[in-house]
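Board notes (copied after class):
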Amino acid sequence: MSNNREIQHLRKLSILMDSKFTGPFGFKFGLDGLIGLIPFVGDFISTAISVYIILQGAKVGCAPSTIFRMGLNILIENLADMFPLFGNVFDFLWKSNNKNIELIENHLQNPRTATIKSRLALGLVAFSLLGFLIASVSISFLIFRSIFDWIVLLGS
């Protein structure tokens, strides 16, 4: 299958999963949010379809940084799914498959720019995680030090 036909197929699949139907007030939603309501298997089915889209992105030549960024979109959705009700609402809003198709199309139109943007996005994520780690360690240290000082003060 040619890249163009494969991308069209992936675009149709993405729309079906994320934005095929129109709800109240023009809100677009797809099967992803509906399938996610099925206990136990719903999120597995949705994730399997999302992984298929990522694998096809790799097959058509997306850079590793773009593939990782696509995986991050799926990871965010799956992390939200860990919280009952919130995760179901998030499925209707996040639309990770549509985001990932855009990443594939952007990469195919201009691979160099898409790769740079993906690397910058991943760098920002890594930098943010490092910042959260440093903040968590610092706050933990301050809390434990305060508790230690309080215990020492009580012992005096």
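Comment from the instructor: The CA atoms of residues 23 and 29 lie 7 Å apart. The helical segments are 3-18, 31-35, 41-59, 64-81, 86-94, 96-109, 111-155.
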